[in-house]
Amino acid sequence: MAKHVSVENLSIIFGRPKAQKEALKLIEEGLSASEIRKITGATVANKKVSFEIEPDELFVIVGLSGSGKSTFIRALNLLNTPTSGDIKINGKSLLELSKKELREYRRKDVSMVFQHFGLLSHRSVLENIEYPLEVQGIPKDERRKKALQVIEQVGLKGWGESLPSELSGGMQQRVGLARALVNDPELLLMDEPYSALDPLIRREMQNELLTLDDSFERTIVFITHDMNEAFRIGDRIALLKDAEVVQIGTPLEFFKNPANDYVIDFIADVDKSRVLKARNVMHRVKNMIHVKASAKEARDLMRATESEFLFVVGDQKKYLGYIDKEALKGKSAQSLETYIQPDENIITRNMYLSEALKVMSDSIYDVAVLDQMGQLRGALTSDEIITALSE
Ligand SMILES: Nc1ncnc2c1ncn2[C@@H]1O[C@H](COP(=O)(O)OP(=O)(O)OP(=O)(O)O)[C@@H](O)[C@H]1O
Ligand SMILES: [Mg+2]
Questions:
Q1: Distance 12 CA to ligand 1 centre (A)
Q2: pLDDT of residue 333
Q3: What percent of the chain is predicted at pLDDT more than 90?
């Protein structure tokens, strides 16, 4: 299960204990980080940060250099300790973990990917990936098996025996990702993982991350200073400025309701049609029915949802096709299976809107939006796309 993260009034201050204390007081008086620094000499790196990250969400934190992004993400595995406030993982405060619990949390529940890869240069790719399992004392056979699995997931099959120095930057970061995935973390922390890479490789890695995210239940916290990157991959985004959160929302919400001029400036260079994806705009599906339901249940649902057709799914919401009103008229067979029509108009949730629009062509109905596993995640109309792009 993916983790739920709750950040409550978190402040992190660097400096001497006395200066920290003074700074905390000044935070309460409403002074800014830079004012507090002038008065006390302490650095307020996070100031009263509060938000929740939902399980399975890909949550992005974006902000300029020095805005407090790394300080924040390092608090999620307690490499930085909150000066005040709290962080709860699935309802349990990190500050209340015993030493043993904290060790377990770091080994099993959470992993981190760093900007500069952080690979061990004298070890092979596979040995690097296995490292977290080795630290846990997992037997050699078992950890090799797991490492071979994840090396394939990140597209590095066949490179296991190479040394990191023999790999390109993009490939080295894939190793970094594999090493972070090897213990199946429920919370994955990524601190500017792609910032050192060329734009094209970077794009490719972003898309791969989205695909990977589709195939696992996992909460991801991703840090970047690039708004395009933030919007391209984030389900939701928090914009940090001078240690504080300026705005939190979905990419669409940022475009629709930028909180202030700073946000407007920040998103000015973002090209909507190149960042917004089906997942950002789709709506929840109400007219969905399980294939094992009866024709009567299908008709009732159509009436209740005022729909001309239903999306039919199997177990785990696997999308099977649609069934329309006409096909069910006068029918009362037990299973819907025989009435399902295969659907050729399908959108994947990581498709850009411009691409999705082409797939929809002239369909006036909702079009199914699927994830990588073929599960029905939502639906889209061409109106929704056009509105999103034009707003
Ligand atoms: N261990 C530390 N001791 C003292 N000051 C620190 C420490 N870590 C961070 N800071 C300060 O806290 C502020 C926020 O730093 P942080 O590294 O969180 O920013 P960032 O948003 O990650 O920046 P970048 O994009 O450059 O990585 C900076 O002023 C930095 O100098
Ligand atoms: Mg940083």
A1: 10
A2: 61
A3: 81
Residue 341 domain boundaries = 288-390
CATH of the domain at 63: 3.40.50.300
| 295 and 214 in a common domain | no
Residue with CA nearest ligand 1 atom 3: 14
Confidence (pLDDT) at 187: 96
Residue at a domain's end among 226, 241, 275 = 275
Express each pLDDT in 100-109 by its tens digit: 999 999 999 9
Give the mean model confidence (pLDDT) for residues 72-95.
96
Nearest CA to ligand 1 atom 24: 65
On whether residue 14 sits in a domain, the answer given is: no
Q: What pLDDT score was predicted for residue 380?
A: 94
Same domain, 233 and 322: no
Q: Could you give phi then psi for residue 205, rounded to 5 degrees?
A: -65, -35
Q: Reply yes or no on whether the pLDDT at 331 is more than 90.
A: no
Q: What is the distance in A from the centroid of ligand 2 to the CA of 194?
A: 12
Q: Which of 60, 71, 72, 191 to probe ligand 1 with, by most ligand atoms within 8 A of CB?
A: 71
Q: Give pLDDT tens digits for 198-223.
A: 999 999 999 999 988 887 889 999 99
Q: What residue owns the CA closest to ligand 1's atom 1?
A: 14
Top pLDDT among 51 and 344 is at 51
| Residue 127 to residue 138: CA distance in whole angstroms | 13
Q: Total domain count for the chain?
A: 2
Residues with CB under 6 A from ligand 1: 14, 43, 45, 63, 65-71, 225
Q: Is the domain of 78 the same as that of 179?
A: yes
- The structure's pTM equals 0.91
pLDDT, one tens digit per residue, over 332-378 is 666 788 889 998 888 999 999 988 988 887 777 899 999 988 999 99
